[in-house]
Amino acid sequence: MIVYINLSSTLTPVQNYSSPMVNLQSSPMDASPLSDSDSLAPRKRLFGRERPIHAVLGGGKVADVLLSRDTRIFAAILFGSAAIWLLYKVVQYNVVTLFCQLFTATMLVIFIWPTVAEFFNWGSVSMTSKLQWRAAQHPSLGESLHWRQVETTSDLELHTQLKELIPEKHGRLNKLKSKHGKVELGNITVEMVVGGMSGLTGLLCETSLIDPEEGILFRGLSISECQKLLPAAKPDGEPLPEGLLWLLLTEKVPSNEQVDSLSKELRRRATIPDHVYQTINALPVNAHPMTQFATGVMALQVQSEFQKVYEKGIHKSKYWEHTYEDSLNLIAQIPVVAAYIYRRIYKNGHVIPMDDSLDYAGNFAHMLGFDNPEMLEFMRLYVTIHSDHEGGNVSAHTGHIVASALSDPYLSFAAALNGLAGPLHGMVNQEVLVWIKSVVDECGEDVSKENLEDFVWKTLNGGKIVPGFGHEVLRKTDPRYTCLREFALKHLPDDPLFKLVSDLYEVVPPILLELGKIKNPWPDIDAHSGVLLNHYGLTEAQYYPVIFGVSRAIGICSQIVWDRALGLPLERPRSVTIEWLENYCKKPAQD
Known about the structure:
Structural class: mainly alpha
GO biological process, one term: carbohydrate metabolic process
GO cellular component, one term: mitochondrial matrix
Largest sheet: 2 strands, antiparallel
Mean pLDDT: 81
Strand order of the largest sheet: 1-5
Pfam families: Citrate_synt, Reticulon
Shape: globular
Subcellular location: Endoplasmic reticulum membrane
Number of helices: 26
Protein name: Citrate synthase
Low-confidence stretches: 1-67, 117-153
């Protein structure tokens, strides 16, 4: 990031910031990202004088060390002592004159050192994020700041890998169309048409694939392989979502350094304009969290780079680059918006600012108000395994079809969120927890398997479903469920609700098989995720689809980037009426 500053603007003193909690009545932007030491006063003094404006505005870890008074005094003494000894021994210089001259030089070192330190740290991520924050707080300063985004190391490397991969993929796709365009992939039946296109192969999705037996494969890697190969926040920890984002975009497993750089890049992009909070605040506090979430994403849309360049005119081969920019910005911003909504609804509007030392999912948990290391690890796992699930599910398909009209990622993802909000999609994990708690309310926590069977039959005979069981594509237990079960066995084996979920795993499938109306009676990921969230204190089940939405942004945005990179056309299948189907089905009999 290169920043041009017009210093003719007046920088007004900032409010004292001493608490990580900020009252919503002002704005979450009041939560300064300054470090604890910087938060003690708007402007620090060094030996009785104020720090220069660039020191007040920011500086990262390098400058923090170089600017410390002890460091500068130590450097001056060390430099002076070495110089005195060298000149006295080698040159035989007059000691008194030498001391006076070196004293003057030492004082210059003490006072010039901060400027040197800032020179080496001027382009740091924390520096630019604080400048952005100050600009948002002070319109007079904001009007004189002209931002020009330049790719950072991580962004450049990710962008470069993607750019190198696209021509090869594009060539393979063109070859498929030219040589095998007429190859049939299967027969379309009436049952498929009237049954939600279940079993119909009709979409191209590069990021992931569901194998009926193996489950979800992210660029060919299973859940367990991702856990082993993707970088983690700690040894033997859960994979970081940033690593999966890199994998989905580039087909390559990133290094620890690449993931760390991408994490910093996402933090740099996570600046939320104040109008977004104002838009959300215009809704009733008791509006459904998904309503507030989709509204917040729509409010972010005014920042869309794709829309701006499209209106000016741009070659279609460049669509993907601006879609990529929008996608990274959106992925970076939505955890902040989602956490704001949670704190607004459930925590009296006290907002927790981002922690620059944390990764993507860890920061999300932190901003929600959870700093338990186990919860941070669980959130990393949750976001990673929920991020993508091929292109046919409601949210991914919605994002794809809206983006096929060249709607930007903000508009497309907002539409996807509205699909995710449905009871048959993103709300299932919410309904699972509610149903499990109804079991506890009626039968108690120590319910026997016999009583549990009776309750399941009671649910089914009442015309309801047992939420969390069965999957449209999978023909075995969802590997994501297994992954969460292993996490629970490791971290919370004695949790009462986890034990109940384990019993349901044994009780429900045989009953569903006995009914004979379901191809896959095994549990999916929704049967487990809510119980884990509840265990760590996130008990507000109505908010669960929002967490799902934060996770799914990684997959949907990656898919949209590749849609534009491959030049996929507008999606426009043909529809027919019942009468048309009736007439079509009569033709073979007549023949």
